[in-house]
Amino acid sequence: MTYRKLLSMSAAVALAAGGLVIVAPSASAKDRPVLVVAPSDLAPTRRVSYADLNLASAAGETTLNHRVRGAVSAVCRESVGSSPHSFARQGCSRFAWAGARPQIARAIQRARDIAATGSSTIAATAITIVTPK
């Protein structure tokens, strides 16, 4: 075994042993419950990619709108529940679509710019669907 391999193996063993010491709970911690709290300002979010679509075509636009519709449905179901006809669900959907529509328009404009001139000043990003907090 070469010196380099021996040194690498020794470092790996030391890191693993150190990790076990850090991860292992103390005797007094066993009796206390662990409480995990998520920040309350985190709203459900989805990202919708369109990298595989030709948004300069009607078919590409339609596919993107279907993807966004699915993401809006999923994020609102997660946020306010599964009843599609509830007031909260409808409000969530309106809010999510209001945020998504300008992003969709920018994505389509970017595709049209590239189709017409070969470039665009609009950055390529995924569409982000969010719900109200």
Give a description of the structure.
This protein is mainly α. 56% of the residues lie in helices and 6% in strands. It contains three helices and two strands. The chain has helices at residues 3-23, 58-80, 87-117; strands at 45-48, 127-130. Strands 1-2 form a two-stranded antiparallel ribbon.
Residues in helices, as a percent range: 55-70%
Distance between the termini: 59 Å
What structural class is derived from the secondary structure elements?
mainly alpha
Biggest β-sheet: count, sense, barrel? 2 strands, antiparallel
Beta percentage is 5-15%
> Based on DSSP secondary structure assignment, what is the total number of beta strands?
2
Structural shape: elongated
Considering the chains and any ligands shown, give keywords for the structure.
mainly alpha; 133 residues; disordered N terminus; elongated; two-stranded antiparallel ribbon
